[in-house]
């Protein structure tokens, strides 16, 4: 992490990676106006609940299934998913309006978003949805935006949206929008655990400033990560760099350390926070079964099994 800039953003150096946990955005042309319907789909690994046979086991199952609904309320609709704004604040609609304004598009679109990526957890789900909306409108109305214009629109929607457009593996510099494509030494599998508590990205960056953490070793780190892009990148090397955001957690630090220790206990060697958190992920060996790791994991954080992908978006026309 580098210094805060005059525009309020921070210089960063971060590796981005597309993975197989994805939302789906359906777009159907309409005469005018943009609308959005959101459907939530739980993509977490199924965990054994209430394994004790007989009525006791059954009771436990019922208790656990009911617990979250009564305890959480608010935005939460399950262990991993919480409601995102369905109105004008949603990144899909913000992206659509921006495309319409900058191209003069007069037609409208009915969007349906199938939301599987946990929100506010540093997994880039909102950015992926915004990028998908740009691509969908471009294709639906043959706007012929081209790569450079798509990228210029993306960066106005968020620092991570340019990567969401491009996908694959990349080093993100600047505020995250300057992308250097990277070749992975080999595809990998990873496990992601998502705590119930979430982090606001802006707040995490503020903490970095307050604690004066950003500049520690910035220049030499920057040189080092840039060198890493010259060759095929081993995921372990990238993970070895750590994540400065882990030091900005404040009161949540003990929860994070507990989750990291529990992931280590099931064989995940170097668990790391994703982006500004709160999700934590780690590589899983090709011989190890996700189901087995999920069974041994102690905790009620939802777990997601993912593999690395060379593509960010897959466009399907009907
Ligand atoms: O660009 P995006 O909307 O995703 O960023 C959310 C917030 O995170 C920004 O308003 C800013 O406070 C902070 N941020 C930052 N430096 C970055 C990226 C984001 O300070 N490189």
Describe the structure.
- The structure is a single chain.
- The protein is an alpha+beta fold and 318 residues long.
- It is built from ten helices and ten strands.
- The strands form three sheets. A four-stranded antiparallel beta sheet has the order 8-9-7-10. It has a three-stranded antiparallel beta sheet with strand order 1-5-6, with no helix packed on it. A three-stranded mixed beta sheet has the order 2-4-3, with helices on one face.
- A hairpin with a 6-residue loop joins strand 8 and strand 9 (280-284).
- Helix 2 (91-103) packs parallel to helix 3 (125-140) and helix 3 (125-140) packs antiparallel against helix 4.
- Residues 50-73 have low confidence and may be disordered.
- The structure holds cytidine-5'-monophosphate (C5P).
- Cytidine-5'-monophosphate binds at residues 8-10, 12, 158-160, 175-176, 201-202, 205.
Number of helices: 10
Q: What number is the mean pLDDT?
A: 89
Distance between the termini: 43 Å
Helices and strands, in N-to-C order? EEEHHEHHHEEEHHHHEEHE
Low-pLDDT runs of 5+ residues are 50-73
- Major β-sheet strand ordering: 8-9-7-10
Total beta-strand segments: 10
* Beta-strand percentage range: 15-25%
**How much helix, percentage-wise, in residues?**
25-40%
Largest sheet, in brief, is:
4 strands, antiparallel
Q: What bound compounds does this protein have?
A: cytidine-5'-monophosphate
- Content-based structural category: alpha+beta
Computed CA radius of gyration, to the nearest angstrom: 20 Å
Tertiary shape? globular
